[in-house]
Amino acid sequence: MTDITEQGINKPSAVALGFFDGLHLGHIEVVKRTLIRDNLCPVIFTFNDKTLLPKFKGRKGHCIITHEQKVKLFERIGVEYIYAPDFNDVRDYSARDFVERILKDFLCASVVVCGYDFRFGKGGEGTPEILKSLCAENGMICEVVPAVTVDGENVSSTSIREKIRNGDIEGANHCLGYELSYNLPVIKGKQIGRTMGFPTINQEIPDYMVKPKNGVYKSWTVAEGKTYRSITNIGVKPTVGYTGEAVMETHIIGFEGDLYGKNVNVALREYIRDERRFDNLDELKNQLESDKKQA
Fold first, then answer.
1. Are residues 88 and 230 in the same domain?
2. Which of 70, 161, 188, 291 has the fewest CB atoms lying closer than 10 Å?
């Protein structure tokens, strides 16, 4: 997939609009509507999270996936181009300027697709109805995609964040359409797990990403190009007296090797149990054996 943030595009395109936080099933439906347009290049307009969050959102625990993960997912489903400017570069555009300068001139849009709750332009003045009107004035077709539902509930980034924070990873994954994952560097831990026959990798979830409920999860881990079953603990490791911020600690079943300093992808599958303090390491080891059997 090609990043056209600097140069734009000079051939007719179908543009999907959105922040696409999480790229859930509702977002995928918006993107799909650009992929079925014959003779038009599918293009994504979004924002780079790294520039948007500190300056605009200003919230901790907001992102479901990183910008890099989002780009890989776009590429996997067939998007050819992405335009992801710094939010501050376009935040003062009026709704009309956005349509004429970005969609028409920069992205050469013939078709524009957005979700039912999409907002754009300075102060969020632009609604889907305004977008339809402005697109019509400029010879473009605008399609507004209604809400996608799963089990009778509208799929939204807000509801997915709540599911993640509550430990409902299966529900979150169902709405995402894939398993929530964290691709993060492995950091040094106390290596206590090795003394019990349960070596683990430690990773820190960045402040800007949603943190799952503290507890133990079934997971998948990709190590050295191979996918392994694993168990992941998210929390403060109360049994060993850890007093720092919550970390993600994963035991990779059947893997032997050194992953320190490497980026490793851990995908959460299912919540097993709450994190709790054990009286001694033997009790902890017995519980880990039980968790391992479940995974």
1. no
2. 188
